[in-house]
């Protein structure tokens, strides 16, 4: 919650795309262990009938069959793993919802909420409550609870089947409904969310977000970063005492702290330049962001 460094909005939103990509991959990986046919395990000891479990599994679309009949009828790790994946999806959605809630607050004003995903107050006509985001954030507790509920059911069960295992269905189906609904709501809300770049730009002038650029500039002049960090801290303190941003200090002001300072320092202090310079892999620079988007588009096309 403290001012740090300028980044592009695309970079910020892409962070959540990468999280959700891992969620998709985690679900796909879990499916490999879920798609195991238990048919032929019978009650617990297997069967004496001449069945062909592999053929049955193939016919119903399962790529694998159980390896141990007692394990097949008594464990619920397939449901637990799915619930864990669901809990992570909701954790990522909740983090995003928290940011949307903050951004919609007038003190930030970075986004305007669509009317379909917000409500007014019963007595305060000026309020626009981020209901959809808050409800999603709250629903995380339900999914976490579902995971913990089934983990608790399983923790002390001896082999093999116990009636306790009937408690696996309600948490699983509730979590499934919650995650499906949350993803649909998030997609709809993002499709109508209106970003306010002028408010974001105004926020750049608060908190000395270009201080790291000044330290990097000094490193480029031959200073060790430790010393550059110290000098930059003193310059920031001077700017704070004057109530000015770094870019409004004069060259003479800056040379008090580092006599070799040149006019090119003001180019380094530009916020656009701070973003554009970071084109390393995964960075916030335009080229790096374009690379991320291209990679994610390729993944979506394969999915």
The sequence of SSEs as H and E is HEHEHHEHHEHHHHHHH
- Our measurement of the CA-to-CA distance between the termini, rounded to an integer number of angstroms, reads 35 Å
The total strand number stands at 4
Q: What kind of sheet is the major sheet? A: 2 strands, parallel
- Helical run tally: 13
Computed CA radius of gyration, to the nearest angstrom: 27 Å
Class per helix and strand makeup? mainly alpha
Overall shape: it is elongated
How much strand content do the residues show? under 5%
- Give the averaged pLDDT, no decimals: 96
- Describe the strand arrangement of the main beta sheet, using strand numbers: 1-2
What is the share of helical residues? Answer: 55-70%
Q: State the low-pLDDT regions, or none.
A: none
Description:
- With 303 residues, the chain is mainly α.
- It has 13 helices and 4 strands.
- The strands form 2 sheets. It has a two-stranded parallel sheet with strand order 1-2. Strands 3-4 form a two-stranded antiparallel ribbon.
- It is elongated and about 95 Å long.
- The model has no long low-confidence stretch (mean pLDDT 96).
């Amino acid at each position: 919650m403290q001012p740090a460094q300028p980044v592009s909005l695309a970079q910020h939103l892409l962070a959540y795309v990468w999280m959700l990509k891992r969620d998709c991959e985690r679900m796909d990986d879990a499916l490999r262990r879920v798609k195991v046919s238990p048919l032929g395990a019978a009650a617990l000891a297997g069967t004496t009938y001449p069945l062909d479990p592999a053929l049955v599994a193939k016919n119903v679309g399962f790529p694998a069959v159980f390896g141990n009949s007692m394990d097949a009828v008594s464990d619920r790790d397939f449901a637990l793993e799915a619930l864990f994946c669901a809990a992570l999806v909701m954790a990522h959605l909740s983090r995003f919802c928290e940011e949307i809630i903050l951004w919609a607050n007038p003190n930030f004003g970075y986004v305007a909420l669509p009317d379909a995903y917000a409500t007014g107050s019963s007595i305060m006509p000026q309020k626009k409550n981020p209901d959809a985001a808050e409800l999603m954030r709250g629903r995380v507790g339900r999914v976490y609870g579902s995971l913990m509920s089934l983990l608790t059911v399983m923790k002390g069960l001896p082999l093999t089947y116990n009636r306790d295992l009937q408690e696996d269905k309600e948490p699983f189906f509730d979590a499934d409904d919650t995650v499906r609904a949350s993803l649909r709501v998030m997609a709809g809300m993002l499709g109508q969310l209106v970003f306010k770049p002028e408010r974001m730009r105004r926020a750049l002038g608060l908190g000395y977000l270009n201080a790291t650029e000044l330290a990097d500039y000094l490193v480029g002049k031959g200073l060790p970063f430790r010393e550059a960090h110290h000098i930059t801290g003193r310059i920031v303190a001077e700017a704070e005492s004057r109530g000015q941003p770094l870019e409004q200090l004069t060259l003479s002001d800056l040379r008090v702290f580092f006599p070799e300072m040149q006019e090119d320092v003001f180019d380094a202090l530009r916020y656009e330049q701070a973003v554009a310079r970071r084109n390393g892999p995964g960075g916030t620079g335009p080229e790096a962001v374009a690379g991320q988007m291209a990679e994610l588009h390729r993944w979506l096309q394969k999915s």
